[in-house]
Design brief:
Layout: H1 9-20, H2 26-33, H3 37-50, E1 69-77, H4 83-91, E2 96-101, E3 108-114, H5 117-127, E4 134-141
Antiparallel strand pairs: 1-3, 1-4, 2-3
Length: 156
Amino acid sequence: MASKINLDKLDLQIISAMMENAGISYADLGKKLSVSGGTIHVRIKKLQESGVVKGTRLNVELKELGYDITAFVGIYLEKSSLYDTVAKDLKKIPEIVRLNYTTGNYSMFIEIVCRDITQLRHVLHDELQKIKGIERTETLISLEESFNRNVQVGPL
């Protein structure tokens, strides 16, 4: 979608700065980029309306809140044509935080965040296994996340 909107250097600077700190005020960002806070507001509104910016998120350290298990699950579908139906069912499971339609061994790849192994077992055994169209799954438990970063945006 970014190719359909005419983004200039200021737009990219705004995106980059807000990816680094989405909580920065428009006034402070304007000072940083040598433009008015009103200009920042107008540009961000334009970016939101075009679909380039899809809101802001609070970055929370989930382990501090007791979410100790992150798992990745490769899903084999009975038929690839079942993707949309299965995706709709997976979206209903709140512990699933990410879903990707993939090439390679798996048809789908999901990320699950749980408080403990008991909750993970519930998601894997009681939730995933009852979804029609899933042939089988492979689960990988993350031992540590070394880093998680945004893509650096630059000239298009």
